[in-house]
Design brief:
By secondary structure, this protein is an alpha+beta fold. It has helices at 2-10, 17-24, and strands spanning 50-51, 55-61, 67-74, 80-81. This is Cyclic nucleotide-binding domain-containing protein.
């Protein structure tokens, strides 16, 4: 997983080995089961998610109870970010 994150960083900035190690220290692997929630209504999202396997859907439910998809990402080759 660390290499996927570093590959993503490399698309934007060159990091020395020491900088890579420092950056990776901020990441934690979090596995989520299918159909589970990363956030509940009212919570503030404070993380960046890299998709290692599978896909993630971001949606909200309006006042009438209808769901609206506002984001969808899946792992494609390297890593996907949500």
């Amino acid at each position: 997983m660390h290499q996927l994150i570093l590959n993503n960083f490399a698309m934007h900035i060159a990091l020395a080995l020491e900088e890579q190690e420092q950056a990776l220290a901020f990441f934690q692997l979090k596995e989520v089961k299918k159909r589970s929630w990363l956030l509940q209504a009212g919570e503030t999202d404070r993380y960046i998610y890299f998709v290692k396997r599978g896909c993630l859907r971001m949606f909200y439910t309006d006042k009438s109870g209808e769901g609206h998809i506002i984001g969808f990402t899946r792992k494609t080759g390297g890593s996907a970010i949500l």
